[in-house]
Design goal:
It contains 11 helices and 16 strands. With about 375 residues, the chain is of the alpha/beta class. It has a 7-stranded mixed β-sheet, with helices on both faces. Strands 7-6-8-9 form a 4-stranded parallel β-sheet, sandwiched between helices. Strands 10-15-16 form a 3-stranded antiparallel β-sheet.
Amino acid sequence: MNTPPAPPGSERTDGPSVHIGVLVPLTRPGWVGAGQHLLAGLELAVGEVNDAGGIGGRPLELVVRDTAADPQRAAAALDELAGLGVAALAGEYHSVVARAAATRADALGLPFLCSSAVLDALTERPTEWVARLSPPQSRGWQVYADFLLGAGHRRIAVATQPSVYWATGTRILRDHLAARGGTLTELEMSALTPAAVCDALIDSRATALLLLVGHPDPAVPIVKSVRGDQRLAEILIGAPAGQPEFAEWATSLGDDSAGVPFLRYLPERLGPLGARVEKVLRERLGEAPSFVAFEGYDTVAVLADVLRSHGADRARIAESWPRVAVEGTRGLIQFSRMPGISVWQWARPPIQVVDRDPAEPDRFRILHAS
């Protein structure tokens, strides 16, 4: 009697696991919501890979470490993961943390697919070991500046805190605006209270205030102060770093959470794969998945394809970056070298400027796309 073939998705995965190290922020002061969404996408994709037979019959397994937005903690975790024999490293949301991880991965010769961090210079020197899915900050934040200019804003203020990420974003915005007749005024929050921000906005005659600060503090008090000042009823509040994407933003601010444009990395319409993944992630998370969850899924989709084609040898994985061609949830993923970018970069991830609809804060409106 012939044994019928196994149905698709039921192939055995009974060899030794192929391990991928994962860095995610899961505790404060990290952005916990972003870490949970990133991990949900990673875990969903791993489950699907294993249901389909794993990596040549070997199950794929994540070895997760919480970075808590701490670069030193991330570097130490990376040393540990490298010692445990992971084939590659994945993840991270915070750019400054990802920079520390990328630098250490380059030094150790550990392939790192960065899921969701945007600093152009993830490493000080060009590296063959690191690739990235999220767009570089220079591209995304220039798109955001174009949105502001297109909406008629020429005098922009930024509430900012000391950080290489915020400083780089400020420089990108200032240079792009200045070349097109705009101006940018910095409001350093180490010297200002949220109430004083309102007076500074009046003095600068700014028509838009961008939040280049941490959440919930001081972002939430700033929004509440500005929204409560009748003199500033017409001012636009923006958050290019994406804070309003997550439910925690809406919970913290209620009605004041709406109408704050931010960057996210999704296409205008998801294809069949993206729509299917969106449905499953929504069920798992109990809320709409953020773009970060899709970045997590796509990270594993790329690594699984590379592992199937090139095996778990670290050097061969790194050598494969320029040959990747994987259909992800948000389009075809391919890596190339871009001017000023030190890592292998997905050149054309989708970029949108969106906000929460004031009439329905759980619904997002696309305001601008690139």
